[in-house]
Amino acid sequence: MAGYISAFFIGGVICVIGQLLMDGTKLTPAHVLVLFVTAGVVLTAIGVYEPLVKFGGAGATIPLPGFGYSLAKGAMEGVKEDGLLGAFIGGVRATSGGITAAVVFGYLMAVLFNPKTKP
Amino acid sequence: MAKRNQTTENKKYQEYVEKNAPKPNYLKNCIWAFLIGGLISTFGQFVHNQIESRMGLSHLDATNATILVMIFLGALLTGLGVYDLIGKRAGAGSIVPITGFANSIVSPAMEFKREGFIFGVAGRMFSLAGPVLVYGITSSVIVGIIYYLIG
């Protein structure tokens, strides 16, 4: 149960930060998404995001900084295993499932469904 | 002289626009973002726990499988038109989770279907998700190189 509460809290707080950026500045959702994935990479590199994932679980991995976390962690683990080559193959290797799912399911749903007329 | 008048008038108009533009309701928007973002994350945690215990996957594999499930659901709900209804209220609460990433892929792809399946659907899929991948992957490679140099 504690895992659910911390996931709710961390996931909620990350989204509130995004909301404040969208309301308080002139940043569009696209800017916020790019900013968040890059922030996830940087925070993971300096060792800040890992404790957040340990505490928040899905609350830290489901929001977009979690995608940056997986990329950065994969790249660093890749370097440990394969040296410099690992910097190039590690990140996408760690996130390949998500990227492939986004391509395949995204295409499938876009073909199957048509946009609803906005009320 | 006339030009100067025009610029002051422009300035006045700009001030008028800024003063009268609707101000976002910070508190209400933040509460919605917190609730929906939190709920999506909690549901993700539930999916993760189910996968880990029922399918006997390792923690890391279960995390990846959860991302897969969430992307599938985000794409499906967007196709059904449900996700945009949530997004009207939730704002960043529905944009920032990975389901919002799936939403950003399916929405423009559906919208531009009339332009065909190559340039329309497939071409527009990554109009928003593309930049995320470009900046995410590029910064992760930079982090990897730095880690290689100092590690």
Topology:
The complex is a heterodimer of chains A (119) and B (151).
Chain A: H1 2-24, H2 29-45, H3 49-56, H4 58-61, H5 65-82, H6 84-112
Helix pairs in contact in A: 2-5, 5-6
Chain B: H1 2-20, H2 26-55, H3 59-80, H4 82-90, H5 92-95, H6 98-111, H7 117-124, H8 126-150
Helix pairs in contact in B: 2-3, 3-6, 6-7, 6-8
C-alpha Rg of chain A (nearest Å): 17 Å
Envelope shape of chain A? globular
Uncertain runs of chain A: none
What are the low-pLDDT stretches of chain B, counting only 5+ consecutive residues below 50? none
Share of residues in strands of chain A: under 5%
CA radius of gyration of chain B is 22 Å
What characteristic shape of chain B results from the CA principal axes? Answer: extended
Mean pLDDT of chain A: 94
The counted number of beta strands of chain B is 0
- Note the run of SSEs of chain B as H and E: HHHHHHHH
Short description:
Chain A has 119 residues and is an all-alpha fold. Chain A is built from 6 helices and no strands.
How would you sum up this structure, described in words?
The complex is a heterodimer of chains A (119) and B (151). Chain A is 83% helix and 0% strand. Chain A is an all-alpha fold. Chain A has helices at 2-24, 29-45, 49-56, 58-61, 65-82, 84-112. The mean pLDDT of chain A is 94. In chain A, helix 2 packs parallel to helix 5 (65-82) and helix 5 (65-82) runs antiparallel to helix 6 (84-112). Chain A has one domain (2-112). Chain B has one domain. Chain B contains 8 helices and no strands. In chain B, 42% of the residues are buried. Chains A and B meet through helix 1, helix 2, helix 4, helix 5 and helix 6 of A and helix 2, helix 3, helix 5, helix 6 and helix 7 of B.
